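FW: tagging you since you asked about this chain on Friday. Here's the raw sequence from the shared folder, copied in full. Didn't touch anything.
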Amino acid sequence: MKVFEFKKNETLILKGIAILFVLLDHLEYYLLSGGGGVALFLLLSGYGINQSCENKGMDFFWRKRIINVWLPYVLIGIFDVVVFRVEGVRSVLCTLIGLDFDLIADKTMWYISFILSWYILYYIMAMCSKLARNPKVRRGVLIIGLFAVAPVFYWLYNKGVWHFSSRMNCCVWFFPLGVLMSCLKDIKVNEKLAKLLWFAVLMASSAFILRNYTSGASTARAFAISAQPIAALRLVNLNGKVSSLLSWLGKYSYPIYLVEGIFWQTRNGLFWRLEMQAFIDIAFVAVVLLNAVVFWEAYQKTISRYLLDKIP
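HL: got it, structure written out here
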């Protein structure tokens, strides 16, 4: 059994669980689960990018990131600027290009500047690692380089570059951890031993969360929450409607993240602590999902398709 390998369907399921964690945190049904969801997204992003670059090379690295990640954010950013009435040329530009460190508009969009920073760092480290001829040495240089620069994010956070409410400091290790898991994906162990190890991870993470449920955000908490769905998938083969629903959520997880912040701030501003709050929250989730699906399908069938056809 390959301990660290993620199959395509598993990746979609985990993305679906990750966006559920984010929504549950923002709706305050599972306190601080959003940090675990973000950690899981970062881990899967590091894993997926490294797999793609190893299989297909670096030729289309920026085209994929720009078309699939940055440009959709820009389109939502235009909406943010209008809805939240962002004023000043600097504030508008920072919001639109993904450098809204002060969270001027959407309070959830700190992740964009964070993941874009990791894309740049990964590209630099990957290009530097190409100087080594041995594939194992290249992987080693890449992994060591990414882990070495991760503490810089702590320093930037403490210097106030990222807004304190983002709690970005809890998630700095997960992107390089995903890259590491990608490099170790071919490691095999006895299936019974692997399941025993993942069962231990599940129990230990559950015990940690229960014991520290009321504590503040931390790297350990984000790790424990993100580790649970991974361990569960290693122990249980999901299928049927549950698997289909989580895969569907995973498919639209990024557009859900892009649009949910707008409605979340509206919900908190206008509909907070009203009677029938549960029904309001169900309506909130329904509206978020509807807008995310419509936006993503329209984007994929128009702008994305056109750019992929035109840009070599």
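FW: The radius of gyration is 20 Å.
HL: agreed, and Residues 8-310 form one domain.
FW: great, closing this out.
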